[in-house]
Specification:
The complex is a heterodimer of chains A (about 250) and B (about 100).
Chain A (H helix, E strand, L loop, with lengths): L7 E12 L2 E7 L11 E7 L5 E7 L9 E7 L5 H8 L6 E8 L13 E6 L3 H13 L6 E7 L8 H10 L3 E7 L16 H8 L7 E6 L1 H13 L7 E5 L6
Parallel strand pairs in A: 7-8, 7-10, 8-9, 10-11
Antiparallel strand pairs in A: 1-2, 1-6, 2-5, 3-4, 3-6
Helix pairs in contact in A: 4-5
Chain B lengths: L2 H4 L6 E2 L4 H8 L7 E4 L5 E3 L4 E3 L5 E4 L6 E8 L2 E5 L3 E4 L6
Antiparallel strand pairs in B: 1-4, 2-3, 2-8, 4-5, 5-6, 6-7
Classes of the chains: A alpha/beta (about 250), B mainly beta (about 100).
Chain lengths: ~250, ~100
């Protein structure tokens, strides 16, 4: 049967704070369908007067998990949907969703070429789904994540990324903190630039498949710099999420 | 792009962000499906198009020449699709 994309009512099975501005919501889905790492769900809120607001949120969890998905959401001050999710929704609430959606910004673990993931702020979410998928599928392809955050407390999934990089062959995590750094910080401490990309991407070679997700201007500058250091533009897939974020 | 459109540059998304709406219109996942820009002849997946979603309608532009490829306007009872900037759109047959 051809899968259809209908709105369904998900229930919030769990809410987990990740950082001061970011929470992970576990959606229990009556019509669950296995997603591909990198896909998203649309969430639609309807007010009593019929006014609707709709946003897309990337799936954070791995496709191997059945019956539910995690979405990780950053609270934006002017975000109608994100502020509702953060400030109003509690465990057990029901919200209208459709998905999984998207076939372009996706990665499947049967790909064996090196993987370069570049994230700005909550742009790490779809890339985390890829990293969790890679771990669940026990893939061994060389993989590096370069992840830019404003400060240490804004880093999402820090402990899990640390753990996965120690237990997963071929996975390397590089952090950069652009605004403030702890006293003993050993990672990068500036915006993503050409020199940083050379250091991170170099060992993966020019055949790496690249996924970049983050604020629009950060994605633009990272993609342009990668082309300058010799990566084929056709191997770079981007997901820009607008002006906000780290 | 001229300066007036440049104001929107920070708000620019990828066509991936419109995957749900495209699914609604075509009844299929479209972002991995190819298209060709009628202005410059660039071929690529719909997901490679640039999406401008803050206006009353949605505009998808070519990531090569930045001309308009697809425009979508939604009203309460209809969806208007203007795809004259695309030489073709491809819909896979499903069993």
């Amino acid at each position: 049967m051809k899968p259809t994309l209908n709105w369904q009512i998900a229930s919030i099975a769990n809410i987990k704070p990740e950082t001061p501005n970011v929470k992970t919501f576990t959606l229990k889905l009556p019509s669950w369908m296995r997603h591909r790492a990198g896909q998203h769900y649309d969430i639609r809120l309807t007010a009593e007067d019929g006014y609707q607001a709709q946003r897309s949120y990337s799936i954070a969890s791995e496709p191997e998990r059945e019956g539910e998905v995690d979405i990780t959401v950053e609270r934006l001050d002017d975000g109608e949907v994100s502020s509702y999710l953060h400030d109003v929704v509690t465990q057990g609430d029901r919200i209208e969703v459709r998905g999984p959606i998207g076939g372009y910004f996706v990665w499947d673990a049967d790909r064996t070429d090196p993987l370069l993931l570049i994230a700005g702020g909550s742009g790490v979410v779809p890339l985390m789904s890829m990293i969790r998928h890679r771990a669940a599928a026990e893939a061994k392809n060389p993989t590096s994540l370069l992840y830019s955050s404003r400060s240490f407390e804004d880093v999402i999934y820090y402990d899990e990324l640390d753990r996965l990089s120690k237990s997963n062959a071929g996975l390397q995590i590089f952090h950069t903190l652009t605004r403030s750094q702890p006293a003993d910080w050993k990672g990068y401490a500036r915006r993503i630039d050409e020199a940083m990309l050379r250091e991170v991407a170099g060992p993966l070679g020019s055949s790496a498949q690249v996924f970049i997700c983050g604020p629009t201007l950060m994605v633009e500058s990272a993609a342009n710099a990668l082309v300058k250091i010799g990566i084929d533009a056709n191997r770079i897939r981007t997901e820009r999420f607008g002006p906000t974020g780290g | 792009m001229d300066e007036t459109t440049d104001i929107n540059r920070e708000l620019m998304l990828d066509a991936n962000a419109t995957a749900g709406l495209l699914y609604e219109i075509f009844g299929a996942e479209m972002t991995a499906s190819p298209t060709e820009c009628a202005h410059c002849g660039r071929e690529g997946e719909i997901g490679t198009l640039l999406a401008f979603t803050q206006g009353p309608g949605i505009v998808l532009r070519c990531s090569g020449c930045e001309n308009v490829v697809i425009r979508i306007v939604q009203t309460p009872d209809a969806i208007y699709l203007d795809a004259r900037g695309a030489v073709y759109l491809k819909l896979a047959r499903t069993g």
